[in-house]
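Schema walk-through. Below, the input block comes first and the output block second. Nothing else is stored per chain. Lengths vary across the set, and this one has 202 residues.
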Amino acid sequence: MSHILLITSSPRVESYSTKVARSLAEKLATRAPDSTVVVRDLIREPLPHIDNSFVVARALPPENLTAVQRAALTVSDMLLKELFAADTIVIAAGMINFGIPSNLKAYIDYIVRPGVTFKYGENGPEGLIKGKKLYLVLARGGVYTRGPMQQLNFQDPYLRTTLGFIGLSDSEVITVEGVAFGPEAAERAVRAALEQVSAIAA
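--- output ---
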């Protein structure tokens, strides 16, 4: 049995990243009987951005929280419950201004919590989310894996670094790039990504 968490964040109705990520989650689910797929759609269910109450509350012991601060942690607690319950996490994101969508950034702000998903010890920071597989399905209008635009790619470097910081270091990236170069280029990019999905799920 496998628990898969699918997180989608693209503002596009016809999203390449969402299409490929859904295919991956569905194929992974068929590999084990009684598998479950939980979908966290950050467009249909947008998260509020973090505020002062949350920033202060996440550093306080539970017994010192006010009612307002406790409420500020509710969203984070819900997201973390989903995350810790999953064996596999699939995140779909389109590139927005060389980075990730703001709704996905808000999600990450809620799950990076001291004492919950990371801690500092004698050897420095330690991620506390262990034993999970992470897949990043990333769509881009241009080509950023090579060539002159590579230095402007702050999408997967940010995601790998931040999610690796909390323990999600076993990660694999599936790219759907060059989709802005016309319908044929987009079709080729999606086909190549779906071939990679099939190989992963085989």
